[in-house]
Fold this protein.
Amino acid sequence: MGVRPAAIAAHYLGGEIGEEMAFPKPAGALMEVAYFHAFNLAVVFLILAHLFAATGFSPRAKCAWVGLALASSATDLVGPWLVRYAGGGFAALLLAAWAGPWASYGALIVGALWEMWVVRPARSAGPNPGCRR
């Protein structure tokens, strides 16, 4: 499968992908992928969203990035089903849903690390009382 909407549609709907013949994905195969993705995405989202929520970013920025992460994760779970049963036109949406977690999860990670390594040490310039010998 490639990263073009036509290749994504052919992967799920069946057809020719390069020189290979692909068959339509059965519901069982889609369910198996969705089952594992749902667990992994939920755990990663839960951890990253809580870390990002503890940062000093504005509530608007927090809601925007966490909302994008949630929406793109949900679209990533539903996208293969849409392509397979609603039509190949949803392949572009699925492609965007694959890019969404990269961008949003990346922002959640970078934001939490920025707060932890750059902003927090600058706020507490004095010695840490818990580290006395």
